[in-house]
């Protein structure tokens, strides 16, 4: 993959689980680099940074592997505080984050979203904070009644329109929409003491329980967007729906659980959403690379 990616850019955009996949890709590629090779962050930023973006350069191959934090893919604006605390943030369904200009020009673009598209991070936060939560907007107009599914559909349409019309997105770019990554909280949720500790074995089968059913609509909408882009005008390669949901759902044993980052407080919730490395995201990247090879991915043929 390093050789096929020479002089290229691999760009991950999404939430912290997208970052998890980006970290996996860095580890896998770094393990294949010759001894003494130089790998560095392009802008001198620490890898502990979780906001904005990071760009790791594999100097021997003139390759950058980049991560851009955009949990909802569209822009989330922090608004000036009002005296009555009426509105804290606006989820702009018709606009991408400001750093989206940097996504363009990617040879491989991997997008993920869905985990923040739930009632607790959008509509319910409004009720909990006495109408001081996250509102959906189109243009400068707030909509207090937009259904979350319709808002998600509108946001994906914005991403699609950008991909189809951005002149800097190369005709030879490969675009992936990764599906939803299930979590495995038992006996509660993240906020109510849920746990995945002492899970040593994968599941052998997943039943479609209520929480799995809740995520089906997210995957359906993501899949539909990828499918609708497959015959996009002027683009040589298909958009791919990278479906990892079912296989990932089996791996209840693959989470950090109580083994959190250094200096995490001892009473912090368990992490049953993100993944240990080496682990599950490595398989996502192997699947993605299989798709790339099958589609003839090789930046050397387009950049001489």
UniProtKB/TrEMBL annotation:
Residues 252-271 are annotated as: Disordered. It comes from Triticum turgidum subsp. durum (Durum wheat). Belongs to the PC-esterase family. TBL subfamily. Residues 252-263 have a biased composition (Basic and acidic residues). Pfam families: PC-Esterase. It comes from the Eukaryota. This is Trichome birefringence-like C-terminal domain-containing protein. One of its GO terms (molecular function) is O-acetyltransferase activity. Residues 1-289 form the Trichome birefringence-like C-terminal domain. One of its GO terms (cellular component) is Golgi apparatus.
């Amino acid at each position: 993959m390093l050789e096929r990616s020479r002089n290229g850019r691999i760009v991950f955009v999404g939430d912290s689980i997208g970052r998890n996949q980006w970290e996996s890709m860095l580890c896998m590629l770094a393990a294949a680099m010759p001894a003494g090779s130089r790998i560095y962050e392009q802008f001198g930023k620490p890898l502990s940074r979780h906001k904005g973006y990071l760009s790791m350069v594999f100097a021997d191959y003139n390759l950058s592997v980049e991560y851009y934090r955009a949990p909802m893919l569209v822009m989330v604006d922090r608004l000036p505080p009002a005296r009555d605390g009426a509105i804290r943030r606006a989820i702009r369904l018709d606009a991408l984050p400001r750093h989206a200009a940097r996504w363009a020009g990617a040879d491989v673009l991997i997008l993920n979203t869905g985990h923040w598209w739930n009632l607790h991070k959008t509509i319910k936060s409004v009720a909990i904070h006495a109408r001081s939560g996250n509102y959906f907007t189109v243009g400068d107009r707030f909509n207090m009644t937009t259904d979350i599914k319709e808002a998600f559909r509108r946001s994906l349409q914005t991403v699609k329109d950008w991909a189809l019309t951005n002149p800097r997105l190369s005709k030879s770019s490969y675009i992936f929409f990764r599906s939803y990554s299930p979590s495995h909280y038992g006996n509660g949720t993240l906020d109510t003491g849920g746990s995945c500790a002492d899970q040593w074995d994968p599941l052998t089968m997943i039943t479609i329980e209520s929480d799995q059913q809740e995520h089906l609509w997210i995957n359906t909408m993501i899949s539909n967007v990828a499918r609708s882009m497959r015959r996009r005008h002027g683009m040589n390669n298909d958009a791919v729906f990278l479906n990892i949901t079912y296989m990932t759902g089996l791996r209840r044993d693959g989470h950090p659980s109580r083994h959190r980052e250094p200096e995490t407080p001892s009473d912090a919730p368990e992490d049953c959403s993100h993944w240990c490395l080496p682990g599950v995201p490595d398989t996502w990247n192997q699947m993605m690379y299989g798709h790339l090879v099958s589609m003839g991915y090789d930046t050397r043929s387009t950049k001489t």
